[in-house]
Amino acid sequence: MQQLNKRMHNTLITIAGLAMLAFSAFAFAGEKPSFAPKVPHPTNGSTECVQPEDEMKKNHMNYLLHQRDQTMHEGIRTKTYSLKECINCHVPENSEVRFGDDKHFCSSCHNFTAVSIDCFQCHMDRPMEGKGTQGENPHSAHTTPTANKTTISTDVADTSKSVQDTKEAGNE
Length: 172
Prior knowledge:
Elements: H1 2-27, H2 53-74, H3 83-90, H4 105-113, E1 143-146, E2 149-152, H5 154-171
Antiparallel strand pairs: 1-2
């Protein structure tokens, strides 16, 4: 009889434990897992990204690589998937946080997933004062896109014009 009571007691405790687990699973079903890093949202007052959040989490690297290829190989510069625009939007202006710190927008996930990136060996990891003034283009391609055609910006055009004038003067 004592053995039967002990077995019933253990069975009731097991059922109660399973019920608690089942109810807690329903209670937390709508929440994000607590082990995932907290991703900083835009700091520029915007409430939307260029794509939905889940899409950006899964495919941001593809968008950045596609933008890089368009910019580097075709001279097409747009803001939509520009790394500079991501930084300007997601990293607070005058921030002291640098890439590598867990509080940096990019580092918050890349550190968690052990993914190393080399973007910030050349690019700024935080916005400079007066967003949009991050200095000269490190690739020296002072170009702007116009209807599937790349044109030279005015400061480069002035230089090429003076070179042309010099050549013409020498031929006279």
